[in-house]
């Protein structure tokens, strides 16, 4: 079935360093790949998304890259700050307008 | 502008009891989703509405779960009877209409944390 794998499950980086989270999807028909950030006690919030007709998208300190051939996409956060600490989820579009979600990455920013 | 509103935020019940969750989506959003989120996992879709029509309920355990969106705005999700394994966070999300082949951003509420004892 449709599946999204996300790695690592936990990522600890020094404040100011970069963080990279990677996802792999199984459905070659997927064409929409959002990233959501979830803070404690809150619902997920979209931070960036990419569609299959582009290979990279940037928004200030956040960027997403997509390799459709390999069915990989990654989230890059540069110059990390304490407020970046949260759980990050990747997702890929599936059949019937569903989003198939990864299991999440807990990002810890060390001061 | 108000976001997606959910109530209650927390609910503790004993097994076999009924429970209901309420969601008010962002004004103008025709698409409404109910998700279940277990600890340490991503959201899992239970049901998706387009206006008042349930267009995807394939993941909804229909023997004990039911949902409604009578006027195409607010929605309720009910569990009867609740089981121990139903303990989770129930998230509601809304988006503008996705018909036409385009995905739109989903806006999530804070969720209802259900504990079944």
Number of helical segments of chain B? 0
Q: Main beta sheet of chain B: strand number and arrangement? A: 7 strands, mixed
SSE string of chain B, helices as H and strands as E: EEEEEEEEEEE
Mean pLDDT of chain B: 92
Which overall shape of chain B is indicated by the principal axes computed on the Cα atoms? globular
Note the overall shape of chain A: globular
Number of strands of chain A: 11
Descriptive account of the structure:
The complex is a heterodimer of chains A (111) and B (117). In chain A, the strands form two sheets. In chain A, strands 2, 4, 5, 9, 10 and 11 form a six-stranded mixed sheet that branches. A five-stranded antiparallel sheet of chain A has the order 1-3-8-7-6, with no helix packed on it. Chain A has strands at 4-7, 10-14, 19-25, 32-38, 45-51, 56-59, 62-67, 72-77, 86-93, 99-101, 105-110. The mean pLDDT of chain A is 94. Chain A has no helices and eleven strands. Chain A is an all-beta fold and 111 residues long. With 117 residues, chain B is an all-beta fold. Helices cover 0% and strands 47% of the residues of chain B. Chain B is built from no helices and eleven strands. In chain B, strand 4 (31-37) and strand 5 form a beta hairpin. The radius of gyration of chain B is 14 Å and the shape is globular. The mean pLDDT of chain B is 92. Chain A binds chain B through residues 32, 34, 41-46, 49, 89, 91, 93, 96-99, 101-104, and chain B through 4, 40-45, 48, 55-56, 58, 91, 93, 98, 103, 105-111.
Offer a quick outline of the entry:
With 111 residues, chain A is mainly β.
């Amino acid at each position: 079935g449709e599946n999204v794998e996300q790695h690592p499950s936990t990522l600890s980086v020094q404040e100011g360093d970069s963080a990279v989270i990677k996802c792999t999807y199984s459905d070659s028909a997927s064409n929409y790949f959002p990233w959501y950030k979830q803070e404690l006690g809150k619902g997920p919030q979209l931070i960036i998304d990419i569609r299959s007709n582009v290979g990279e998208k940037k928004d200030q300190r956040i960027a997403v890259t997509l390799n459709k051939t390999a069915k990989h996409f990654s989230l890059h956060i540069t110059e990390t700050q304490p407020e970046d600490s949260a759980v990050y989820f990747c997702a890929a579009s599936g059949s019937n307008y569903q989003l198939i979600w990864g299991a999440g990455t807990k990002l810890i920013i060390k001061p | 502008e108000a976001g997606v509103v959910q109530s209650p935020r927390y609910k503790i019940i004993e097994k076999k009891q009924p429970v209901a969750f309420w969601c008010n989506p962002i004004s103008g959003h025709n698409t409404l989703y109910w998700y279940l989120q277990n600890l340490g996992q991503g959201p899992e879709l239970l049901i998706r509405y387009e206006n008042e029509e349930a267009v995807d309920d394939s993941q909804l355990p229909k023997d004990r779960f039911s949902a409604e969106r009578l006027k195409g705005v607010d929605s309720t999700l009910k569990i009867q009877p609740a089981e121990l394994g139903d303990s989770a966070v129930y998230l509601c999300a809304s988006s503008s209409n996705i018909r036409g082949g385009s995905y739109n951003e989903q806006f999530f509420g804070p969720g209802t944390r259900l504990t079944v004892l």
